[in-house]
Amino acid sequence: MKLESYSGLAALVTGASSGIGRLLALRLARQGARVALVARRKGELEAVASEIRAHSGDAIVLPCDVADANQVADAARHACRRFGAIDILVNNAGYGGQRTFLEWDLSDMERIMRVNYLGAVYFTKALLLQMVERRRGWLVFIASVTGRIASPEKAAYAASKFAMVGMAEALSLEVEDLGVHVLTVYPGVIRTPFFDAEMLARMPAAARRSMVEPDGLVDAIFRALAKGKRELTYPRGLAAGYVVRALAPGFMRRQVKRVTRSSPPGAGTR
Ligand SMILES: NC(=O)c1ccc[n+]([C@@H]2O[C@H](COP(=O)([O-])OP(=O)(O)OC[C@H]3O[C@@H](n4cnc5c(N)ncnc54)[C@H](OP(=O)(O)O)[C@@H]3O)[C@@H](O)[C@H]2O)c1
């Protein structure tokens, strides 16, 4: 279902306090949508809301930990009450990590599933029914190329994104005849605060070289919605990896190992 005009629509963006989510929220508002901003840091959300209001847009701030189902239900209820309904849900909140399976703390492996995967489940559960009842809605899942091609030191993160991708694919098939469109987005390496100092230091050189600015991704997401696409990989060339993986899994495995070999300690800071 093509999404070409945003005026009169209401959107909810999780992870709107920073990076990709912040830019998506600003762009949605600029296109005429009213926007509910969700993340944990209230002050950062207020700053985004002020920016939107300064350009005559409408935004509300809903501080919420997406890993907490009760907080999500409250935030969703509040957004629906304020805007009447939510037409566009962007499940974007998430975080990463770059460490071996043995280094990854078990409680954080559980936490990353709750934030990256269950957070999206909770918000979709809370908002899908009112979309189906109105036979109008768009669900955008910000997954990752790592949700289709796993790499070393990404086990917990990859698991959370593979889970999101599986859920989004099944859901897309279920709801497409009910007026709800699902777009799953597979970003590559995007320059945002997602990468903390530790991740940058351990990031393989090839990944560091492939890093791109978030504005291009946001443009591509809006183009994909306008065309009614169901999947978007950005930068586009990375999608070739899915074909290689399917046709030549052994070759792909060697390539992934070669290009993701960790940088020596401190290399990212040089
Ligand atoms: N940057 C990349 O290269 C890249 C590549 C592929 C996929 N992605 C995905 O893109 C999404 C956005 O990442 P980004 O690059 O924009 O990173 P970012 O700048 O660090 O933004 C992450 C956002 O998620 C929010 N968030 C994290 N934990 C949360 C929680 N428990 N509850 C509510 N909000 C939470 C953060 O807000 P608070 O801290 O205020 O809660 C922040 O707004 C993530 O899902 C990430 O996996 C990013």
Task: Estimate percent helicity.
Answer: 40-55%
Question: Ions, cofactors, ligands: which are bound?
Answer: NADP nicotinamide-adenine-dinucleotide phosphate
Average residue pLDDT = 96
Strand proportion: 5-15%
Question: What is the rounded Rg?
Answer: 18 Å
Fold-level CATH name? Rossmann fold
* Reported CATH architecture: 3-Layer(aba) Sandwich
Number of helices: 10
Determine and state the CATH class: Alpha Beta
**Poorly predicted residue ranges:** 265-270
Largest sheet: 7 strands, parallel
Category from helices, strands and their pairing: alpha/beta
Protein architecture, described:
The protein has about 270 residues and is of the alpha/beta class. The protein has one domain: Rossmann fold. The chain is built from ten helices and seven strands. Strands 3-2-1-4-5-6-7 form a seven-stranded parallel β-sheet, sandwiched between helices. Helix 5 links the parallel strand 5 (about 135-140) and strand 6. Helix 3 (about 70-85) packs parallel to helix 4 (about 105-135), helix 4 packs parallel to helix 5 and helix 9 packs across helix 10 (about 250-260). The longest helix is centred in the middle third of the chain and has 29 residues, at about 105-135. The chain is globular, with a radius of gyration of 18 Å. The model is unreliable at about 265-270 (pLDDT under 50). The site of NADP nicotinamide-adenine-dinucleotide phosphate has 29 residues, from helix 1 and helix 4.
